[in-house]
Amino acid sequence: MNHSIYSADRMTHLKIVVVALTAGILVAGFGIAVHNASDEGYTQTARVMKAGKPVAITSSSNSLVR
User: Fold this and answer.
1) What is the pLDDT of residues 3-33, one digit of tens each?
2) Widest distance between CA atoms in the chain
């Protein structure tokens, strides 16, 4: 068994390419299947945020030393 990709024969390279393509197709198919199964669909709705009552925020830079 040869452990170097540089000195591997043509059949070994072909096997590696086939396994990589199969894995890529499976990952892409899984991603498409999960994406289409979402409940949101293709419609988008705007979420409206309404302003509440005004709030006054004050800060004091005085430090209390006792």
Assistant:
1) 777 788 888 889 999 999 999 999 999 988 8
2) 84
